[in-house]
Give the backbone structure.
Amino acid sequence: MPLRCVYTDLDGTLLGYRGSLFRDAEGGFSLQQARALEACHRAEVEVVIMSGRREAQVAADARLLAQSSYIYEAGCGVVIDGERTLLTGDWAPDEEGTPAEKMLAAGIPDLLFERFPGRLEWHGPWHVDRVLSHLFRGRIDVAAANALLAEQGHDDLRFLDNGAIVRRMEGLDGPAHAYHLVPGGASKAKAVAFHTRARGYPPDQCIGVGDSLEDLDAAEAVGRFFVVANGPERDPGLREAIGGRANVTVTEGRNGEGVYEAVVSTLAERR
């Protein structure tokens, strides 16, 4: 049974220190990420990067990696061979504005700031110029945030945890997390499933790699999912969430080393 596709998160996973393709988690020079991509190329395995980043950023990385498909804004959008599909439900850009602009106009970010004072803020400067979603950092109860949205009549929105970040936030003990506010129940898992269907890939011939709770949900859409070691090291809640998922493996390597481990071990098993 061949491997057909690898879905990989960017920050904290394929990319190392300061978002570099050629640095490991500590900043040392590394070719492990490139070797993982080379192994996929030789085996004719498609690589699809998935990220919470804006489309322009993800598109630039996809071009750098010579990949024609990518997932951006935490699964709000998917591009396959130049064709863009939004997975945002009824939230779509129109004459009234983009989904991000509509959420601002409805006061939804302010609602969250008021509910979690001192524990949630914009994840600047990366929160600007977003089209489909909003990006925050902090340390809050995601279930409580989603309950608040539902109580206020916004059950078509989803607040999600995209993992622990290196950047500290004043007033918080321990690492802050990156959070996304997405419309239409968008997720990386749904975006991965959309891509597998569009390509005709059986899920059991695909793997995923990531470092966060949001990435972990994509395990439902692939045959096997790998969590790179730095994920649960920074977020104990991630290790708890892994429990009971038979198709999830925690790699020994961090960041790109973990991606290399996932790719090479899978290819070796399927020879």
User: Anything to note?
Assistant: DSSP finds ten helices and twelve strands in the chain.
